[in-house]
Amino acid sequence: MLTASHLGFRYAGTPVLHDVNLRAEPASMLAVTGPNGCGKSTLLHLLAGVLKPAEGLVERPPGTRIALLPQRTGDIDALPLTVAECVRIGRFGGGLLRRLTRADKAVVTEIMERLDIAHLGRRRLRELSGGQRQRTLIAQAFAQDAEVYILDEPTAALDVSSRARVHELLTERVRDGASIVMASHDDEETALAGRTLRLSSVSSSAA
User: What pTM was computed for the model?
Assistant: First the structure.
């Protein structure tokens, strides 16, 4: 579904990633681990097509639907969005000008309820706590009809109960056939994955 071959990347000429290889299969979860600064976020942005590799290749079948949850999303707080509006954006895969169907609205309602943010629907993003905001962004990602979910530290700001809710959703999406590539420092979270890619300074090893 998604393959990376011999990926390399540099920031201002400084190597960040070198010779990284991975394959994201349908109905599977791949955990990307490693210390801070080893390039996990960079790798996820390369896989999602946000960044272009300096070396190597990322291959995706034409039309592959990818949902990206980045780790740093501070700019979104400047938008005058409510929680419900933010989650609904995840359903606009066919274009922002189309109208949401009854089925779209049902998906949004369900994911907000499952992540315990339905009661926050009219609150502005800038009014939320860190955990509430993170659950809103996770809901937006899971509201998408994606084949590949690329998630950067999805539960880092969440309490135990909220992490359990997210882990349940991750397991369900894999069972339904999606591919998940997830960067995480959480041992419990990485244990959900069938495979692990460990990054170190300008290197990688897969297990």
Answer: 0.91
